[in-house]
Design a protein that fits this description.
Length: about 110
Amino acid sequence: MEAALKDGDILQNAAGQFQMLDGINALFQRAAFRLNVKKGAFWYAPEFGSHLFELDRSAPESENIALSMAAEALLPMPEAKVISAEIYEDRISFIVEIFNERRKIEVKYS
């Protein structure tokens, strides 16, 4: 179990207790966190995160490059597989599969 996050903040219920995630919901949150953190941002875990923020969105094959970058970021999660990527002006939208369930994970440009 882990605390549920939204926009970097821990979510709380009406009683002020942390909302908790487990199972597949926790795994998708971990995948989203790995994709949204700039690689090297944590000095204690410099290998954590992705290079997606370095992506040249105008380059040919940028969606394929984004897929590769996302797959690299999720290597420590063998249960996670990046299925597709779509590049928009303000974000990259990925479809990620974990244990045969697919969900959208978005990475917004800062």
